[in-house]
Amino acid sequence: DLGASIVIRRVGDSIMFGGFEEHPIVWPETRPTTPYILADFNWDTFQPIWQAAIQRVPCLEHIGIKTTVNGPELFTVDGAPFVGPIESVAGLWVSCGFNSGGIQLSGGCAAELAGWIVGGCAGEDFVAKFSPSRLDLGKNLPWGSLAGQCAEGLSSHFAPKEQ
């Protein structure tokens, strides 16, 4: 339910759900030694997600929560993946940073990237939205600046849109 910023799916005989906060908490700058980091569960942050899930699937209110997992999800600064050539390294092409949009975007991005590699060009709209050159990745921006941009991009990415 994109409007409520929640995801619900069946896993075996259970229901798994999660969501995105309207005002995401930015992870502190770290150099983790493990790719899997979890944080303490924060009920205050989770409450709007829980209420949205109950509204979509009312029986959840009476079933309860068996397990909680709270951890960071990685997003690019503007929320869009990087797909295309890295201009500073000849022959290096990337397709990464899909975060939560990977399933929806992967097929179209793969087709566009293959055409770009083989044919030498991609659609102008595609390049503007996904090319790594859209951002100055060579800048060494301070963590606070990047963190703020990521939080702003994530909250606007999942915010309800006016029609």
Outline the structure in words.
The model has no long low-confidence stretch (mean pLDDT 80). Helix content is 36%, strand content 12%. The strands form 2 sheets. A two-stranded antiparallel ribbon has the order 1-2. A two-stranded antiparallel ribbon has the order 3-4. The chain has helices at 43-56, 60-63, 102-119, 124-130, 143-158; strands spanning 6-11, 14-19, 82-85, 93-96. With 163 residues, it is α+β, with helices and mostly antiparallel strands. It has 5 helices and 4 strands, in the order E-E-H-H-E-E-H-H-H. The two termini are 16 Å apart. A hairpin with a 7-residue loop joins strand 3 and strand 4. The protein is globular, with a radius of gyration of 19 Å.
List keywords for this structure.
single chain, 163 residues, alpha+beta, two-stranded antiparallel sheet, 4 strands, 12% strand, globular
